[in-house]
# Entry
Amino acid sequence: MKNSKILNEIPKEGFLKVTDVTNKTLSDQQRVTLMRRGNEFFNNGDIEQARRIFLTIGYTDGLIRIGEYYYSNNRPFEAFKMFKIAPDPARVNNMIEKMTYIIKKWIKEE
# Structure
């Protein structure tokens, strides 16, 4: 499969990464091509397309950037998912602490 055609193989809805195992069917060159393309999408503001690519190739740094984007745009649950999938334990734990604080505050208010 040619590198230029690899993007056409990604389903519109993307892939859901459920393990820490990256897609082993991609060659290193295909992975690099997708990583660059995902970075282009991200830099051009097409966050969802970048997210699909980063999930497909298991690109940790890209997933963290997507999570930071979601967090700064008031989408904390989406950010949490990206940090969890990346994985980024420090950010995950930080968000869990914040969520725990909020829940405790809600419970005290009742």
The chain has a mean pLDDT of 83. The chain has five helices and no strands. Residues 3-109 form a domain with the Serine Threonine Protein Phosphatase 5, Tetratricopeptide repeat fold (CATH 1.25.40). The longest helix spans residues 89-109.
